[in-house]
């Protein structure tokens, strides 16, 4: 028979067999189609989410020809996409930085006047300024990006979409993004007050909400739009201002106009340069390096290849047993083909045609299902991406390749069953006898070698090379080796049956005897669990490292309110905190200043602050860091490292909120609330001694000298942020050095010691001991009350490092659970179909009706347990490799600094922590769930049938 005729016959037989065994066929099609649905959906979503150049430009500058942004430096150089850098002209950097944008223009009219010098005659422009400020909400106060522009201008068309209401037309109207409205609790018609950070909101500008809109590429930005100039009184000096420009003619803003703008300090984002970029030869050398980081991410490619490989492996492992059982169910049919002169290649063709037919069905279902899934979930996907899709982008060549991939998977899954079916003697096929089977002795040997090689490659590649690609390759090789060893391991598990009761003994022996369907299911569970364990191990190890590096500002569960400068609102902030928190103990803190108390307001034209004088330590060798002092080049690396640990070099510790004051005044009882109650410290402070954070701050063996400055002079200061001039007064106090003063103020004294030394005190805040750690809602309520007060008050609660990966680990465990139960259920269903005659025989010899249910449940649970145990071991290989890669990177960055004496940080540690909760869920919970589900979903009674043969 010719090859064409052979395949036509094989396809016809395969189609009829698929329609005859609808349940098994649907199972195989579903297994193959599921990853195809995901691949098709991902391709369509990514392609539709990646905007064309024209769409990107429209969402950035609307219908304008270009945007001009004043950088404050001139001249500059830029690339075609608008990225820019300053041009080194040899001028004094201070003279360049003095030309900051905020002193060049303050109002829209001033920016327009500056741009007229570089714009062609007849150009039109739309002003746009972006500035982060504070805005009132229905709950309190929130941050919002305030944009001053006319969103209804023709040049702004396409940048934003009005969803409800109308665009602002007067200076007292505002439109808000959907993100701001959903988070603020406000609606159209409400009033919102906007003001700069650090300013009281009651002095801000009041607007009426008249509309709701969205920016297609910034769905998650909390934004407000007002008319140009509406925020002039409260605009921050660092606000970003630009002009959307329309130039006469059809050429737009070309490279010549862009260079003219660069000479004047304007960075240009041009439509013409994006759509029709000139050759790169016109770019300055400085601009060529602006895009140097746009290469291919080799780590991402490696992870993607590994993920795709594991998906293919898992599908083939799950689909393969189904084809094997199908081949055994069809062995009489294949025997008849052989008895009538059919050759082995024809029987192989029949089985391969089954994979081809089912793969083609899965390809069609996956293609249609993936497209439908993306269309139905488009709003959800856009919400996750934070941007709207562009036009639907169907890349039919790519989608066709994915569909062909489904057919390939079907063929791959049918290869081994087809090979085995062709080797089966015709007589055995007609009688239903399976004969004696022997396991391969070569396969476990090859698998063991692959495991050793893959594990070594992953671990040594991570430790010696510090690259993810060898780790990924080694993990895949090791996992494939373990898969190759799975039949042998299943047989080894079967030897434990002799010590089990009757029903689990039957289940385990049946699984070990029929390794052709048990081993692939175990391997599929292994693959899913290994990925979950790998990610979970890396995640919990990262959390362990974060916990180790976390430095608590206060004892766990305590809270503090501190003020940077303005203390007028401290009492109101304390009232707000004590209203929301369950306070057990309160201790106030103050800053030591020269007495009698006399404060004045300092205004340098940029900002203003209150100055009440300064009190600070005067170390014996001066307050300059030895590592950077004159003559430091002669220091050894060890001496430099030792000096870097001193507060003379790092500015010393502080209290909650990052506020550090040289000399703090507090009662001895407050030390416990600050976590500074080490042995002898409380007693020494009560005796009138000063607590000192580090011995380098001492002026003698047991005393500390405090300098007093009554006049402001910060133009030149030392490393402790104290004036360098000779103090007007010096006070010497007995001192006690703290053993661990890294997070302590430089010097601590009591109010009595401060008074006796002639110091006054300036209120700086309060530390609280709480009965319980406040929840998120209580903290938000206190934050909202403090924000409404304005000023510079900080509220901090010490609730430890934030671990944000619990949900991710739960999702991973759930995913592995679903795969495990599905794979174990598939293997159990195939076992029932394959062993129908055996179950009928058991019923005939007197087995109870519950035996089938118990046997099915134990078969499913044992398969799940074997796969989970092997997967847990396999998943540790890539996890350890990835942790070694990260550790190697940390060492490579730390070692040169340590050798040069530029860091006092200790050698980076490698953190490996096992995900015990994930292990508990997978190893204990998942097999139990699989067991119970299989037992509940299996019928107890078995209809007796005539035994064949």
Written overview of the protein:
One of its GO terms (cellular component) is plasma membrane. The chain crosses the membrane at residues 301-328, 349-376, 396-421, 442-465, 471-497, 518-540, 807-831, 860-881, 916-937. Keywords: Cell membrane, Membrane, Transmembrane, Transmembrane helix. It is a multi-pass membrane protein. It is found in: Cell membrane. The chain has 949 residues and is an alpha+beta fold. Among the domains are: 65-291, no CATH class; 559-621 and 655-797, no CATH class. The strands form four sheets. It has a ten-stranded mixed sheet with strand order 17-20-21-19-22-18-14-23-13-24. Strands 4-5-10-7-9-8 form a six-stranded mixed β-barrel. The chain has a two-stranded antiparallel sheet with strand order 2-3. A hairpin with a 4-residue loop joins strand 4 and strand 5. Helix 17 runs parallel beside helix 30 and helix 30 packs antiparallel against helix 31 (916-936). Residues 91-103 and 292-299 have low confidence and may be disordered.
Note the main attributes of this structure.
949 residues; alpha+beta; six-stranded mixed beta barrel; globular; FtsX-like permease family protein
What is the element layout, followed by pairings?
Elements: H1 3-20, H2 22-49, H3 53-61, E1 66-70, E2 76-78, E3 84-86, H4 93-97, H5 101-104, H6 108-115, E4 124-136, E5 141-148, E6 161-165, E7 173-177, H7 178-184, E8 191-195, E9 205-214, E10 223-226, E11 240-246, H8 255-263, E12 266-270, H9 271-275, H10 285-288, H11 298-329, H12 331-339, H13 344-376, H14 378-385, H15 396-423, H16 426-431, H17 442-465, H18 468-494, H19 502-513, H20 515-549, E13 559-563, H21 570-580, E14 583-594, E15 600-603, E16 608-611, E17 614-617, H22 637-644, H23 647-650, E18 663-665, H24 670-674, H25 681-686, E19 690-692, E20 703-709, E21 729-737, E22 747-749, H26 751-756, E23 759-770, H27 776-789, E24 793-797, H28 806-834, H29 836-844, H30 850-899, H31 916-936
Parallel strand pairs: 5-10, 7-9, 18-22, 19-21
Antiparallel strand pairs: 1-11, 1-12, 2-3, 4-5, 4-8, 4-11, 6-9, 7-10, 8-9, 13-23, 13-24, 14-18, 14-23, 15-16, 17-20, 19-22, 20-21
Helix pairs in contact: 1-13, 2-11, 2-13, 2-15, 11-15, 11-18, 11-20, 11-28, 13-15, 17-18, 17-30, 18-19, 18-20, 18-30, 19-30, 20-28, 20-30, 21-27, 28-30, 28-31, 30-31
């Amino acid at each position: 028979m010719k090859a064409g005729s052979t395949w036509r016959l094989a396809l016809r037989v395969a189609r009829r067999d698929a329609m005859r065994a609808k349940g098994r066929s649907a199972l195989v099609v579903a297994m193959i189609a599921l990853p195809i649905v995901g691949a098709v959906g991902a391709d369509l979503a990514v392609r539709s989410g990646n905007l064309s150049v024209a769409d990107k430009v429209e969402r950035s500058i609307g219908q304008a020809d270009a945007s001009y942004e004043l950088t404050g430096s001139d001249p500059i150089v830029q690339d075609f996409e608008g990225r820019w850098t300053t041009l080194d002209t040899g001028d004094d950097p201070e003279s360049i930085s003095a030309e900051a944008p905020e002193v060049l223009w303050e109002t829209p009219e001033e920016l327009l006047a500056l741009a007229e010098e570089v714009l062609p005659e007849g150009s039109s422009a739309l002003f746009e300024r972006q500035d982060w400020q504070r805005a009132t909400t229905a709950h309190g106060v929130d941050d919002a990006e305030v944009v001053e522009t006319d969103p209804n201008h023709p040049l702004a068309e396409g940048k934003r979409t009005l969803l409800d209401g109308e665009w602002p037309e007067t200076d007292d109207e505002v439109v808000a993004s959907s993100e701001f409205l959903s988070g603020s609790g406000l609606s159209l018609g409400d009033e919102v007050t906007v003001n700069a950070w650090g300013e009281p909101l009651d002095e801000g500008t009041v607007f009426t909400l008249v509309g709701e809109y969205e920016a297609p590429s910034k769905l998650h930005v909390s934004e407000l739009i007002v008319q140009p100039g509406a925020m002039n009184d409260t605009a921050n000096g660092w606000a970003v201002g630009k002009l959307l420009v329309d130039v006469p003619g059809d050429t737009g803003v070309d490279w010549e106009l862009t260079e003219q703008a660069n000479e004047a300090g304007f960075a240009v984002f041009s439509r013409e340069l994006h759509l029709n970029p000139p050759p790169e030869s016109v770019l300055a050398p400085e601009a060529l390096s602006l895009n140097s980081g746009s290469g291919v991410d080799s780590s991402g490619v490696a992870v993607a290849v590994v993920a795709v490989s594991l998906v293919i492996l898992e599908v083939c492992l799950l689909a393969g047993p189904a084809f094997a059982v199908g081949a055994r169910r069809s062995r009489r049919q294949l025997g008849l083909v052989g008895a009538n002169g059919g050759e082995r290649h024809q029987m192989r063709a029949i089985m391969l045609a089954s994979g081809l037919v089912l793969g083609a069905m899965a390809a069609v279902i996956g293609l249609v299902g993936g497209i439908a899934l993306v269309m139905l979930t488009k709003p959800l996907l856009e919400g996750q991406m934070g941007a709207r899709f562009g036009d639907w982008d169907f890349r039919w060549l790519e989608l066709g390749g994915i569909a062909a991939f489904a057919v390939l998977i079907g063929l791959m899954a049918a290869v081994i069953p087809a090979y085995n079916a062709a080797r089966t003697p015709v007589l055995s096929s007609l009688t239903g006898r399976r004969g004696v089977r022997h396991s391969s002795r070569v396969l476990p040997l090859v698998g063991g070698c692959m495991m050793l090689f893959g594990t070594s490659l992953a671990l040594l590649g991570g430790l010696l090379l510090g690259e993810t690609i060898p780790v990924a390759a080694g993990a895949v090789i090791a996992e494939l080796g373990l898969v190759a060893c799975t039949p042998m391991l299943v047989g080894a598990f079967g030897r434990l049956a002799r010590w089990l009761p009757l029903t689990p003994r039957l289940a385990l022996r049946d699984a070990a005897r029929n390794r052709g369907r048990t081993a692939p299911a175990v391997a599929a569970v292994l693959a899913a669990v290994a990925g979950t364990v790998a990610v979970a191990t890396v995640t919990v190890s990262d959390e362990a490292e974060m916990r180790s590096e976390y430095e608590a500002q206060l004892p766990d569960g305590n809270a503090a309110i501190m003020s940077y400068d303005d203390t007028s609102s401290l009492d109101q902030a304390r009232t707000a905190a004590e209203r929301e928190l369950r306070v057990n103990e309160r201790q106030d803190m103050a800053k030591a200043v020269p007495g009698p108390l006399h404060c004045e307001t300092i205004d340098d034209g940029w900002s203003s602050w209150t100055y009440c004088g300064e009190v600070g330590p005067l170390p014996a060798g001066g307050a300059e860091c030895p590592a950077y002092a004159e003559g430091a080049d002669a220091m050894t690396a060890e001496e430099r490292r030792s000096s870097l640990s001193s507060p003379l070099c790092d500015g010393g510790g502080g209290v909650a909120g990052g506020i550090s004051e040289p000399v703090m005044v507090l009662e001895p009882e407050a030390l416990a609330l600050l976590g500074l109650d080490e042995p002898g410290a409380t007693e020494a402070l009560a005796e009138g001694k000063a607590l000192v954070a580090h011995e380098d701050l001492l002026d003698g063996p047991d005393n500390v000298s405090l300098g007093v400055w009554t006049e402001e002079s910060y133009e030149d200061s030392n490393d402790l942020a104290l004036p360098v001039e000779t103090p007007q007064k010096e006070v010497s106090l007995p001192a006690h050095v703290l053993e661990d003063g890294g997070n302590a103020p430089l010097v601590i004294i009591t109010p009595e010691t401060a008074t006796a030394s002639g110091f006054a005190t300036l209120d700086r805040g309060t530390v609280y001991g709480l009965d319980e750690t406040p929840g998120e809602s209580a903290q938000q309520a206190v934050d909202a009350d403090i924000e409404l007060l304005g000023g510079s008050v900080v509220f901090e609660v010490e609730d430890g490092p934030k671990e944000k990966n619990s949900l991710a680990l739960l999702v991973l465990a759930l995913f592995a659970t679903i795969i495990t139960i599905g794979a174990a259920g598939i293997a159990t269903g195939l076992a029932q179909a394959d062993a129908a005659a055996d179950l009928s025989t058991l019923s005939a010899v007197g087995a109870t009706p519950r035996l089938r249910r118990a046997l099915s449940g134990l078969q499913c649970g044992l398969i799940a347990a074997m796969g989970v145990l092997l997967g847990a071991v396999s998943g540790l290989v890539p996890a350890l490799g990835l942790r070694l890669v990260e550790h190697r990177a940390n060492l490579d960055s730390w070692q040169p600094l340590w050798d040069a004496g530029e860091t006092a940080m200790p050698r980076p540690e490698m953190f490996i922590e096992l995900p015990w909760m994930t292990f508990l869920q997978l190893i204990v919970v998942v097999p139990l769930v699989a067991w119970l589900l299989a037992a509940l979903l299996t019928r107890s009674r078995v209809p007796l049938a005539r035994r064949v043969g």
